[in-house]
User: Fold this.
Amino acid sequence: MTRTGRRAVTAMYAGLALTVLTTIVPYATHLLADLVRAGYPTYTAAQVDTAVSVYLALSSAVGGLGVLAWLTTTWAVRAGKRWARPATTVLLVLGVAIGLTGLLVKDTSGDTGLPSALGWTGLAPCLAALLAVALLWRRPETHYR
Assistant:
């Protein structure tokens, strides 16, 4: 594997770590419950808990798929598979679309569906993916004498 390939794999491992962190963060904060309470002041505690549980389930599913995508594409790059670059690029586009959806989509209360801190956190793995894709699509290194 070339030096550029090793750097891409390093960026991919960073993206994997960021995906795991992004998946865990909502469990460690009360940001979701606070947003639901503010947007729907008539909700009971049980309704707030249900709304938060639904989001956490969706977030965990997306995070799990993200982890699977990182592991698969990292393996493909390390193994030198021809489909690794296009697959990684497609997954970057999907990741950005999912991240922007979490950041920008508004719910029925008129507020964004996610607190902005969680929305921006959801885009963090995309930065590592962007770096990995850029490295994977670079021209092969040439050696001058």
About this structure: The longest helix spans residues 45-79. The chain has a mean pLDDT of 91. Residues 92 and 129 are 6 Å apart (CA to CA). The two ends are 21 Å apart (CA to CA).
